[in-house]
């Protein structure tokens, strides 16, 4: 009976030691998993921050582009107005040229 008790105790000790080793391995696996999850969370947070910055930069760029478009529209309008004024000046210049030629023609009568 004592031998059987000793054998059973030895088996229990072995099982306990094996269980302890497995618990230690499980703890290490959990620790490594925890570390990996922490790194993943940090990467997610960095990605989120980068996404936020990209979104903000995109919004600012869109706003700047809208301002450029508005400025270009104003430039185009100014060019149209200037072109209209130049046409008017050309028309007036042509009229003045015609008047100057008529005046020259009439003045030539007085030249002797």
What does this structure look like?
- The chain has 112 residues and is mainly α.
- 97% of the residues lie in helices and 0% in strands.
- The chain is built from 1 helix and no strands.
- It has one helix at 2-110.
How are the secondary structure elements laid out?
Layout: H1 2-110
List keywords for this structure.
112 residues, mainly alpha, 1 helix
Question: How can the largest sheet be summarized?
Answer: none
Distance between the termini: 161 Å
Number of E-state strands: 0
Which oligomerization state do the chains in this entry correspond to?
single chain
Mean model confidence by pLDDT? 92
Number of helices: 1
Element order: H for helix, E for strand: H
For the CA atoms, what is the radius of gyration?
Answer: 47 Å
Summed up:
Helices cover 97% and strands 0% of the residues. The protein is mostly helical and 112 residues long.
């Amino acid at each position: 009976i004592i031998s059987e008790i000793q054998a059973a105790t030895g088996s229990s000790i072995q099982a306990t030691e094996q269980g302890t080793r497995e618990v230690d391995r499980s703890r290490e696996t959990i620790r490594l998993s925890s570390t990996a999850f922490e790194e993943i969370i940090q990467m997610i947070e960095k990605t989120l921050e980068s996404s936020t910055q990209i979104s903000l930069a995109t919004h600012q760029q869109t706003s700047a582009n809208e301002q450029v478009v508005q400025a270009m529209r104003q430039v185009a309008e100014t060019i149209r107005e200037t072109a209209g004024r130049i046409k008017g000046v050309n028309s007036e210049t042509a009229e003045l040229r015609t008047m100057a030629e008529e005046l020259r023609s009439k003045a030539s009568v007085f030249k002797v």
